[in-house]
């Protein structure tokens, strides 16, 4: 009996119930849980912010001056909201580490947490409001041909 090959898929670790969000919580996704039942996915959890060396919990951050592509190009920055500390290097390092994991595992797609400055897909939060744009990791994934979908 032949077994179907599962699609290797990176997923924001917080969506899988892992306590890695900036506030120390998770973002368990019932929507994603239902997809597990109907799709042949091999899930590979990643938290780009932790991979970049940031602790959990950590101060909330947002992209200022653009979106993820702009951070990668050096024309925008990821800044901790309360302290004003620039954490762009950590976000870029984490995105690069997540991309490396995708390459090592052969993942061709990613399911990422919406609104996040690293994982946001088709919208990020700036000043508490959702704006057009994407997170740093999503921008790097898309530049490298990884299909990305956002999950609430």
Compact overview of the structure:
It is built from five helices and eight strands, in the order E-H-E-H-E-H-E-H-E-E-E-H-E. It has 152 residues and is an alpha/beta fold.
Keywords:
single chain, alpha/beta, 24% strand, two-stranded antiparallel ribbon, 152 residues
Write up what this structure looks like.
The chain is α/β, with parallel strands linked by helices. It is built from five helices and eight strands. It has helices at residues 30-38, 48-51, 68-73, 88-105, 136-143; strands at 7-12, 41-46, 61-64, 77-80, 109-113, 124-126, 129-131, 147-151. The strands form three sheets. Strands 2-1-5-8 form a four-stranded parallel beta sheet, sandwiched between helices. A two-stranded antiparallel sheet has the order 3-4. Strands 6-7 form a two-stranded antiparallel ribbon. Helix 1 (30-38) links the parallel strand 1 and strand 2. The protein is globular and about 50 Å long. It starts with 6 loop residues before the first strand and ends with a strand.
Question: What's the helix and strand layout?
Answer:
Layout: E1 7-12, H1 30-38, E2 41-46, H2 48-51, E3 61-64, H3 68-73, E4 77-80, H4 88-105, E5 109-113, E6 124-126, E7 129-131, H5 136-143, E8 147-151
Helix pairs in contact: 4-5
How many strands, what sense, and barrel or not for the largest sheet? 4 strands, parallel
- Helix-strand pattern: EHEHEHEHEEEHE
Pairing-aware structural class of the strands and helices? alpha/beta
Q: Could you list the spans in which at least 5 consecutive residues all have pLDDT below 50?
A: none
Tell me which oligomeric state these chains represent: single chain
Alpha-carbon distance between the two ends: 37 Å
3D shape: globular
Instruction: Count the E strands.
Output: 8
Strand order of the largest sheet: 2-1-5-8
Rg over C-alpha atoms, rounded to the nearest angstrom: 15 Å
């Amino acid at each position: 009996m032949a077994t179907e090959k599962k699609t290797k898929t990176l997923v924001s670790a917080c969506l899988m119930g892992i306590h890695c969000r900036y506030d120390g919580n998770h973002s368990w996704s019932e929507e994603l849980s239902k997809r597990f039942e109907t799709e042949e996915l091999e899930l590979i959890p990643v938290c780009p912010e932790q991979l970049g060396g940031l602790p959990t919990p950590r101060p909330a951050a947002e992209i200022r001056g653009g979106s993820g592509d702009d951070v990668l190009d050096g024309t925008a920055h990821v800044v901790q909201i309360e302290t004003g500390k620039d954490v762009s290097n950590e976000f870029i390092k984490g995105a690069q580490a997540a991309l490396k994991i995708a390459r090592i595992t052969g993942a061709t797609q990613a399911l990422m947490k919406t609104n996040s400055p690293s994982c946001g897909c088709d919208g990020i939060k700036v000043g508490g409001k959702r704006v057009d744009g994407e997170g740093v990791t999503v921008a790097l994934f898309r530049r490298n041909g990884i299909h990305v979908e956002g999950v609430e």
